[in-house]
Amino acid sequence: MKERLVVALDRSSRDEILALANALHGAAGMLKIGLQAYVANGPSIVRALVDRGEKVFLDLKFHDIPNTASHAVAEARKLGASIVNVHASGGAAMMRACRDAMPRGEGLLLGVTILTSLGDDDLAAVGYRDDSEASVLRLARLAQDAGLDGVVASPREIAAIRKACGSDFIIMTPGIRGAADESDDQKRTMSASAAVATGANYVVVGRPITEASDPHAAAAAVWG
Ligand code: C5P
User: Fold this and answer.
1) Cα dihedral angle (84, 95, 150, 39), rounded to 10 degrees?
2) Of 7, 152, 204, which is best to mutate to test ligand 1, by the most ligand atoms within 8 angstroms of its C-beta?
3) Distances 74 to 5, 15, 101, 175 between C-alpha atoms, Å
4) pLDDT tens track for 38-75
5) How many CA atoms lie within 13 A of 91 on its CB side?
6) CA 48 – CA 44 distance, rounded (Å)
7) What is the pTM of this model?
8) Which residues line ligand 1 (CB under 6 A)?
9) Ligand 1: nearest atom to the Cα of 154
10) 24, 48 in Cβ contact below 8 A?
C-alpha cells in the first residue's frame, strides 16, 4: 500500500524538506511539493528530491491559457516530476495542450476539479450553475475527455467519480486522517484504507506524518 501514499512536504525551509525526505525514505510512494515549498525554494527543490531517487508530485495547479500552461507542464516534466496537475476549469483546450506537453506514459497529468474550500454558495458566486458534486463530475468527465490521467478529489467524491469515469481513471485524494489524528483544518476526512477501498489510487497525507516525532513510523501507521 505504501506506493499509494503521497506525503505533502508543506514547508518553506529547504533543510526541513530534505530532512523530512530523508526520514521518509522508503515509507511513501511519492513526495508532494506544493506552492509554499516551490515558491520558497524554486525548481531546485524538485531536482534535489528527484536526484535522491524520490518520486515527486509537483502540485502547482496550473491554470492559464493553453500556450502558457502547456509550457509550464513541459518544464515540470523536464524537472523530473512524476505527477503534475492543472485546473480542469482551465478548459478542454488547455488540458489537451498540457497532455501534449506530458505525453501519456511519461508522467501522470491530473486535473483539479473543485477546490474543497469552496461551498455551494461560493460556487454560485463565481458563476457555477450546479452544486459541488455535479460540478466535480462534469469537470472530471471533461478532464477525462481531454486525455488527462485522472483527478484530485475529496474523499466524499471518490465513489461517484469512479462510477462516472471507470476503473482506469486515477483518483488522488487528500483529507486523509486516522481515528487518532487531529483533523486540523480538514473538514470531510476519511482513513487512508477506507479511501483506497472506496476507489482512490493515491492518498495525500501531510501534517499527521510531517508533524509526527517519527515521520517514518507515522507513514506506516497511516494504513493501520
Ligand atoms: O496536512 P494535510 O494532510 O491536511 O495536507 C493535505 C495536503 O493536500 C496539503 O498539501 C493540501 O494543500 C492538499 N490539499 C487538500 N485539499 C485539497 C487539495 C489539496 O488538503 N482539496
Assistant:
1) 20
2) 204
3) 25, 27, 5, 29
4) 999 999 999 999 999 999 999 999 999 999 999 999 99
5) 7
6) 6
7) 0.95
8) 8, 10, 34, 115-116, 152, 154, 174-175, 184, 186, 204-207
9) 21
10) no
pLDDT per residue over 186-197, tens digit each?
777 899 999 999
Which cell is 133 given? 458534486
Between the CA of residue 51 and those of 22, 108, 131, what are the distances in Å?
Answer: 12, 19, 43
pLDDT of residue 183: 81
61 carries an active-site annotation: yes
> What is the model's pLDDT at position 179?
80
* Tens digits of residue pLDDT in 98-149: 999 999 999 999 999 999 889 899 999 999 999 999 999 999 999 999 999 9
> What does the block give as the cell for 224?
493501520
Domains of the chain listed by start with CATH number: 2-221 (3.20.20.70)
The residue written with cell numbers 525514505 in the block is: 25
pLDDT at 187: 75
Q: Report CA(15)–ligand 1 centroid distance (Å).
A: 21
Q: Note whether 21 and 54 are within 8 A (CB).
A: yes
CA of 129 to the centre of ligand 1 (A): 26
pLDDT, residue 196, reads 97
Phi, psi of 29 (to 5 degrees): -75, -30
| Active-site pick, 61, 78, 163, 187 | 61
